[in-house]
Amino acid sequence: MDFDYSPEEEAFRQEVRDFIAAHLPEDDSPKATEKWNRALVKKKWIGFAWPKEMGGCGGSLMEQFILKEEMSAARAPALGTDFMGLTWVGPALIQHGTKEQQKRFLPDLLHCKSIWCTGYSEPDHGSDLASLQTRAVLEGDEYVVNGQKIWTTLAHVAKWIFMLVRTEPEGATKKSRYGGITCLLVPMDSPGIEVQAIPSLVGVHSFNQVFFNDVRVPVENRLGKEGEGWRVVMGALAHERSGISEATGMLRHLENLKDLARRSTKSGHLAVEDAAVRRKIASFETRISAMRLNGMRHLTMQLAGAQPGSETSINKLLRGHLEIEMSDLALGLLGIESQAAGDWQKESLSFHGTVIGGGTPNIQRNIIAERVLGLPKD
User: Which sequence positions are flagged as catalytic?
Assistant: First the structure.
């Protein structure tokens, strides 16, 4: 693996730094964020690596990596406002969408005018997406959808849901548990959709249950062919788990933890001088470095033309463990103060969404064991 950058890539890095210096918001107010996004839209840096014919910048994967790395290092706001749409829906539309679908949905994603949620998990099935039961029956030129999704982030504010449904007839013999699944793009204001909030432990409303009662969806809103929804969504999830941005985010989290250790005391001394605390911090730093290198390996594979593989689950699993262990150490450093409200306390009660979202740790272990190590199926 070559860690050196070309002169052109270094020039682009400087361009990103200059942009950040000129446009980084002084606060997180709506007005400042809107101004930031307008500047990003003008540069076409939202959807940076998307093809130019799709409205993107047509940037290279290496340039996209540099862009995200510099943005994260500067603690800049996100590239665009629709994380789910840009991360999953956009790439899936580019790969599997019709020209009409691309023209209909991509511009709003690139201009911060859309809000998408994703309908994957279901009650009693969770991360086992292949066991989903929400069903869509074709009637004329419409699918009639019935079922329930759960842990649906931002469903209460989303305009559209990118969802998986089962379209094979009930009782049909399955050649594969991954067959008979179809991906639909559904307006959230469709008659028959009901959203119920699932408040978090800190009172934040992000997760929801979504019920579908005879919801009619035009066939033209199907993404990809009927029965090929698994392939559509797995490509999107692999894109999510590339890992480099996760490692960068965890490194920022670690810097906050180090700062806490410098300000806290343990047994009458600064916590940062305690051998056990230093070992834990060193362990975190080593594992985050491993995440970054694994992400670089993934990037190298992409640069060579390979499709994202199951190796991306490694970083998802590592991040889940780090979220929990770093929060535990932070609360220990705070001591009695951990009982009061504060940023670290909120973090410790909120990491569950990150750990569970996109597949629980046990799901990631199974993927790594079966698809990476070649072990027998569970």
Answer: 240
